Fold this protein.
Amino acid sequence: TVICILQQILRRFGDWFLFLVTDQAFVTLATDDVYCQGALVLGQSLRNHTTSRKLAVLITPEVSSGMRSVLRSVFDEVTEVDALDSADSVRLALLQRPELGVTFTKLHCWTLTHYSKCVFMDADTLVLCNVDELFDREEFSAAPDSGWPDCFNSGVFVFRPSLKTYNLLLQFAAEHGSFDGGDQGLLNSFFSNWATADIGKHLPFIYNLSSSAVYSYVPAFNHFGRDTKVVHFLGATKPWNYKYNLQTKRVMQDGTTSGSFHQLSFLALWWNIYSASILPLLEKFQKMEESE
Ligand code: UDP
Ligand code: MN
């Protein structure tokens, strides 16, 4: 009977644990097949580091059916949402990133109310180790932006899905727009007390290390960089814009791309996952489509 009771306790604990983890998810966004490549590498990197949480990806109608099949083999949940666009060409021009209006689509992550807590990660991020401890944080937690540290970077953040928050965000967007034309400006104005209210909501920079920012403070990178947990390939040139030599396993540079040593080693990590795990999936589903 003692064993029986022990078994029961263990089962209860198991159920409780299962409930916990199905209740929380990493969420990313890809509005086209190109960004899906990033989402797939991110999802695979989370799997490689054995996350106990669910993996969810938001997509828009533009994403092809073949790509959806591939996404389903890496993510637990693939959810189609409408594209939202800030349509703010003036501010986006200031940012020199006309394509970022569509990042308003990110706001849909608050509609995933079957989860109690989520961690949003941009499709151009990559985890280097298990980061499940992020779920210990509360909404709204994020890391400082390297360009303006009183702002957070919206590439990695902890949030609680809620239709109330979602509607407030849409209302705020309609009334005030976004100071940079993208989701980051909007979210920083909405969660405007982030900089001062609660230091517990400041994620360490190693949870959202922008690979280009490394060079503005090299000694700090040399000192802290080995602890990096999440790399963010922020900026106009994404990992998938580089060329990669499958034989030598090296990222190649040409006139349009540039990068220094650390940046290149992070890029090589991204490409290792892409070539080893994602390319075979893409090829498999392509063959399946051709034979249909
Ligand atoms: N995104 C997308 N399609 C786009 C542009 C952006 O799906 O055309 C999503 C994707 O998840 C991306 C995030 O929005 O990681 C933010 O955009 P991006 O990473 O390009 O901005 P940055 O981090 O360079 O400021
Ligand atoms: Mn990004």
Q: What stands out?
A: The longest helix spans residues 261-291. The mean pLDDT is 92. The pocket of uridine-5'-diphosphate (ligand 1) is lined by residues 28-32, 35, 99-100, 102-103, 106, 122-124, 155, 234-235 (CB under 6 Å).
